[in-house]
Automatic annotation (TrEMBL):
<keyword id="KW-0732">Signal</keyword>
<protein>
    <recommendedName>
        <fullName>SsuA/THI5-like domain-containing protein</fullName>
    </recommendedName>
</protein>
<dbReference type="InterPro" id="IPR015168">
    <property type="entry name" value="SsuA/THI5"/>
</dbReference>
<feature type="domain" description="SsuA/THI5-like">
    <location>
        <begin position="57"/>
        <end position="263"/>
    </location>
</feature>
<comment type="similarity">
    <text>Belongs to the bacterial solute-binding protein SsuA/TauA family.</text>
</comment>
<dbReference type="GO" id="GO:0042918">
    <property type="term" value="P:alkanesulfonate transmembrane transport"/>
</dbReference>
<dbReference type="GO" id="GO:0042597">
    <property type="term" value="C:periplasmic space"/>
</dbReference>
<dbReference type="Pfam" id="PF09084">
    <property type="entry name" value="NMT1"/>
</dbReference>
<feature type="signal peptide">
    <location>
        <begin position="1"/>
        <end position="23"/>
    </location>
</feature>
Length: 351
């Protein structure tokens, strides 16, 4: 495949929810607006993360879908969705992806909009515990008494609180240790922490040592969907709705390529992506990383937003965050869904 090298900017700091709120306050429009040149090509920056989940956003560039849509792109990469919120509010990027918790935070503070669910990570995120902390006790008691490594305001936090709810542990009783994904994995391996939420490829060493690390819970056991939405800044949607819809259409074409293409070809392309992101993985680890994620087609994502599935998933997420004290009151999830559905309906007109 021909590859067009694109500009990549990396954010190395992780923004806390408090910092995000302070940074975003006073940002009336939120987000930047991609501008078209004289030839009609729109230039946008895509927000993504330094992990396998961002495969489809890179793939749409690799396959030429953005070019076909009249888009010229570069990428801004961070360790987590929370770390991207402040830069999105400042107008540094127009579109991208993140987990449900940072989307909700972004919507509350500066109007960030969803464009359907990129994927469901209910099998990808896993709550691990060291066997020693489970000796002579049960997972619920261990969870209530053991600090848990987690990425703040992220899907890993979402999974943690969902597992706590399933185990009958109050969110307020959980002590978290906010870290980036690599630090969480290293913390478990070095016995600095004894419980953590991890995802592929970071969890490979723990999966390889079941005698020491116990898989306590994932989204399937907790009975929840862990949706990662595509997102569009409100300013970009207001000022260039055609380009926003074109991006949504293009990136879902990448999702559908992942779903429909023979697995060996997908794996080979996925490995190219991982290497460009600086992630080393064996074919076995890469296969696991692919299989643990369920990419959605455009039609599936649209159906979720036209129905109740998308709203229900984010509502449950928000309830966990309220219970943990992150929010004082429930965010307006139905309103968020309704505004995002307008973007999806516009993209549907391109199909």
């Amino acid at each position: 495949m021909k590859k067009k090298r694109t500009s990549i900017r990396v954010l190395t700091t992780v923004a806390t929810l408090a910092t995000i709120a302070l940074t975003a306050s006073g940002c009336a429009g939120g987000g930047g607006s991609g501008q078209a040149d004289a030839d009609g090509v729109t230039h946008i920056t895509i927000a993504t993360q330094a992990q396998p989940t961002g495969f489809s956003l890179w793939l749409a560039q690799d396959l030429g879908y953005y070019k076909e849509a009249g888009l010229d792109v570069d990428f801004q990469i961070a360790e987590s969705g929370a770390a991207l919120l402040a830069s999105g509010a400042a107008g540094d990027w127009q579109v991208g992806y993140m987990g449900g918790p940072p989307l909700i935070s972004g919507y509350k503070t500066w109007g960030l909009l969803p464009a359907g669910a990129m994927m469901d990570e209910y099998r990808n995120l896993i709550l691990f515990m060291d066997k020693d902390v489970l000796a002579g006790t049960d997972p619920a008691t261990a969870l209530a008494t053991t600090p848990v490594g987690v990425v703040a305001n992220s899907t890993s936090a979402q999974l943690l609180y969902a597992c706590a709810d399933a185990l009958g542990v109050a969110a307020a009783d959980i002590e978290t240790v906010p870290l980036d994904p690599a630090a969480i994995a290293n913390g478990m391996l070095n016995d600095d922490i004894n419980a953590a939420v991890l995802f592929s490829v970071n969890n490979a060493p723990l999966l390889a040592d079941p005698d020491k690390y116990v898989q306590v819970c994932d989204g399937e056991k907790a009975g929840v969907s862990i949706l990662d939405p595509y997102v569009v800044t409100p300013r970009f949607w207001a000022e260039n709705p055609d380009a926003a819809a074109a991006w949504v259409d293009a990136v879902y074409k990448a999702n559908e390529w992942i779903i429909d293409t023979p697995r060996d070809e997908v794996l080979a392309t996925f490995q190219v992506f991982l290497k460009e992101m600086g992630i080393e993985a064996t074919d076995e680890e890469a296969t696991y990383a692919l299989d643990a994620r369920q990419w959605l087609t455009f039609d599936q994502a649209l159906e979720q937003m036209r129905g109740t599935a998308f709203t229900d998933s984010l509502t449950k997420t928000a309830e966990f965050l309220v219970g943990a004290g992150v929010y004082d009151e429930m965010p307006a999830i139905p309103e968020l869904n309704a505004k995002g559905l307008e973007i999806m309906e516009a993209a549907a007109q391109r199909r």
